[in-house]
Design a protein that fits this description.
2 domains, Flavocytochrome C3, Chain A, domain 1, alpha/beta, eight-stranded mixed beta sheet, FAD/NAD-bd_sf, 14 helices, 466 residues, 21% strand, six-stranded mixed beta sheet, FAD/NAD(P)-binding domain
């Protein structure tokens, strides 16, 4: 006699979607959450979700299909994904967005991104809204919850996963769904599974959102599943954004007026490029990388003085670069400051001649209104001419998504090292390996959570009824 039909580990998007899907079949479901509140890191996400063939695209005259999305998704990821798994993901995105809308989610439009050929990124009301929606559905269907229980191991009997052990207590189930999220808050797992990122970020590694969200990104699915023979895949598959060392909660891009150079003193990327471009550029650049600007840029970048509808000061898009913050960070030695560019180069350890040549070219391009080196939008370029001059190191180090985890098949079942199904074990969302590849694609993380959360939940419930 088991305690419950299905145990779901984790209460973010993937875990709650799995719980809703499993309980909709009549299965009894228990969601086990390691922290003291439900929702995980999903509560803090923008919750943009990629999708194809939706009514929201049709309303904007966008012609799209799951087939077209699948072809582009595979190509973007260099065909490093299992075709059946990638198809299940892409084919499931449109219906999942429709399901969300039908259940009250606020779909606020469809926008393009740097990866896809047509607009596919569906904006939502944000993570908290979607978590509340999922919790309402789960509770209405009788899902139970257990907080403050971090699972120590999976129980196995006769080759089948049959429950969990947490805090010395055991709970039995006919099936277990792993939905524990990524590993961005666990430096030891990052070093093991994301060595490329670890080398770039060093001790700056943080999940997007900073230290306070690290407990929600511990990568528990990796050791838990590996201990029962799961195949772990997705090494060096991640999405990360750039930030200076004094910033924990960063924007995914720098203010457009900044000039960025590597250790050779040369520009290596359009400073306003998106996440995917920065990923590749930082991997190719000679570290360390510095953002440089002058006194004129610093003094011009102030709080807006405007008010929000609630009467609070309206902040700029990049509040960490406004004048008072820069001055404070100079005092804390997060910036190098100098009256001359040649001395700035010396302090940074950069060869002065190429740095001065880079800045001369940048200034000339800014005056002419055309970036001849990196093709940045000239409207945001600003000459670097009036001292003192400032520089701060930039690293690719804020982790938004990690793709390493137990490999799953198209039904969300976890596979062992011989590509055989581990009976009773399923996974969905960020912790499931093989859903995302080496390419950072906007809306991908949320899609893996909802589509494979549903798939894993339905499959677990079906297995429990066998």
């Amino acid at each position: 006699m088991t305690d419950v039909d299905v145990i779901v580990l984790g209460s973010g998007f993937a875990g709650l979607r799995a719980a809703v899907a499993a309980s909709a079949t009549g299965a009894s479901v228990l969601v086990v959450e390691a922290q003291n509140e439900l929702g995980g890191r999903s509560r803090f996400s923008w919750a943009n979700i990629m999708g194809a063939g939706t009514r929201f695209q049709a309303e904007l005259g966008i012609q799209d299909s799951a087939e077209a999305m699948y072809e582009q998704y595979m190509r973007l990821n260099a065909f490093r994904l299992d075709a059946s798994v990638a198809w299940a993901l892409c084919a499931g995105t449109g219906p999942e967005i429709e399901w969300l809308a039908d259940n009250g989610a606020d779909i606020r439009g469809v926008v393009p991104n740097e990866s896809f050929e047509v607009p596919r990124i569906h904006r939502t009301g944000g993570g908290q809204q979607l978590i509340e929606l999922l919790l309402k559905l789960a509770r209405a269907q009788g899902v139970d919850f257990a907080l403050n229980h971090r699972v120590d191991r999976l129980l196995v009997e006769d080759g089948r996963v049959c429950g969990i052990e947490a805090d010395g207590q055991t709970l039995t189930a006919k099936a277990v769904v792993l939905a524990t999220g990524g590993m961005g808050g666990n430096n030891s797992l990052i070093q093991e599974w994301m060595p490329e990122l670890s080398a770039l970020a060093g001790d700056w590694v943080l999940p997007v959102g900073g230290d306070e969200l690290a407990p929600y990104a511990q990568g528990d699915a990796v050791p838990l599943s590996a201990a029962v023979g799961a195949q772990i895949t997705g090494r060096n598959y991640y999405e990360a954004t750039i930030r200076p060392g004094y910033v924990q909660v960063s924007n995914p891009a720098l203010p457009g007026h900044l000039l960025m150079v590597d250790a050779t003193g040369r520009r290596f990327v359009d400073e306003t490029a998106g996440i995917a471009a920065m990923h590749g550029a930082f991997n190719a650049a000679a570290a360390p990388v510095y953002a440089i600007f002058d006194e004129g840029a610093k003094t011009s970048y102030k709080p807006t003085g405007e008010k929000t509808p609630e009467g609070k000061p309206k902040r700029r898009l990049h509040p960490d670069w406004v004048e008072d913050v820069v001055d404070a960070m100079v005092e804390k030695q997060h910036f190098v400051k100098s009256d001359s560019l040649a001395d700035l180069a010396t302090q940074l350890g950069i060869p002065a001649a190429p740095l001065l040549a880079t800045i001369d070219q940048y200034n000339s391009d800014a005056a002419l209104g055309h970036d001849s080196v990196q093709l940045k939008d000239a409207s945001v370029m600003r000459k670097v001419v009036s001292g003192p001059f400032y520089a701060t190191e930039i690293r690719l180090s804020s982790i938004g998504f990690t793709g390493a985890g137990p490999r799953v098949n198209a039904q969300g079942a976890v596979l062992d090292t011989k590509h055989q199904v581990i009976p009773g074990l399923f996974a969905g969302g960020e912790c499931a390996g093989g859903l995302a590849g080496p390419m950072s694609i906007g809306g991908n993380p949320t899609a893996t959570c909802f589509v494979f959360g549903r798939i894993a939940g339905e499959s677990a419930a079906a297995f429990a009824q066998e």
